[in-house]
Design brief:
The protein has one helix and five strands; from the N terminus they run βββββα. It is α+β, with helices and mostly antiparallel strands and about 100 residues long.
């Protein structure tokens, strides 16, 4: 998976929405293409009754110290609704690239 700027012509169907124009938007993509952005996640990767595994990404613009509250809340919600307490792993991503100039 990568975090990058959307390319010209890239779209996906947002959850409960229409096809989103992703050009120049910060987004997450995998080998099959874009699947998540700050405005809407895609139907392709949404949680359904058939979901057995979840990858949750919390983006912090306030550094690592700003993650404590959202990580605690995510842990509470996964434990309450998805029996997730047994499998929560916290990691820190240190990008090897410079921030992209999103416009």
């Amino acid at each position: 998976m990568e975090f990058r700027a959307g390319r010209a012509g890239e779209t996906y169907k947002g959850i409960g929405k229409y096809d989103l124009n992703l050009e120049s938007l910060p987004l997450f993509a995998d080998a099959r293409g874009p699947h998540g952005s700050a405005t809407s996640d895609s139907e392709r990767t949404m949680v359904t009754d058939a979901t057995t595994r979840v990858l949750a990404i919390i983006v912090s613009f306030g550094g690592a110290s700003a993650l404590d509250t959202p990580v605690k809340r995510l842990t509470e919600l996964l434990t309450l609704y998805a029996e997730g307490a047994k499998s929560i792993v916290r990691c820190k991503l240190t990008p090897a690239w410079s921030p992209l100039p999103f416009s």
